[in-house]
Amino acid sequence: MITCVVHYTIDPAQIEAFERFAREWMRLVAAHGGVHHGYFLPAEGASDKAEALFSFESLAAYERYRARFGNDPEFVAADSIRNDSGCVVRYERTFMRPLLPTD
User: Fold this and answer.
1) What is the DSSP letter of 88?
2) Which residues of the chain form beta strands (DSSP E)?
3) What are phi and psi of 100, to 5 degrees?
4) Which residues of the chain have pLDDT under 50?
5) Per the CB 3.0–4.6 Å rule, which of 17, 42, 45, 58 could disulfide with 87?
6) CATH number, domain containing residue 53
7) Taking the alpha carbons of 63, 68, 71, 76 in that order, is the dihedral positive or negative?
8) Which string of DSSP letters, residue by residue, matches 44-72?
9) So what's the pLDDT on residue 49?
C-alpha cells in the first residue's frame, strides 16, 4: 500500500470552495480504486493549512488513477473548482508507507 499525503496552503477566504474541491476528490479517489482517509481543515491556529491522505494498493495503481488527470471530464471539473476559485495557493505531495496498528 502507498499513501499520498497532500500538504495544502489554502486561501482562508475560499474555504467553501476548498470544501467543494475536497468532496469531489474524495469521491473520485474512491471511484477509481483508492481509499480516501479525509481532508483535514483548519480549526485553530494557522488558518491557511490543510492536509489530505489517501491510499492505493500500489504505486502502479496510483499511476493509473493519475493518468486520468487532464483527460477525464470529472477530473477536469474537480480541478476547475481549484483553478476558478483560487482556493489552493500551493500544494505538495509526499508518498508514504503506512504502519498500522494491525501490522
Assistant:
1) E
2) 2-10, 35-40, 49-56, 88-96
3) -100, 155
4) none
5) 17
6) 3.30.70.100
7) negative
8) SS-SSEEEEEEEESSHHHHHHHHTTTTTS
9) 95
- pLDDT of 87: 97
Residue 46: count other Cβ atoms within 10 Å of its Cβ: 9
Count of structural domains, the chain: 1
Classify residue 12: in a domain, yes or no.
yes
* 66 within domain boundaries: yes
Q: How far apart are CA 55 and CA 1, in angstroms?
A: 7
Is 103 part of a structural domain of the chain? Answer: no
Report pLDDT digits (tens) over 35-56.
999 999 998 876 899 999 999 9
Q: Do residues 5 and 101 touch, judged by C-beta distance below 8 A? A: no
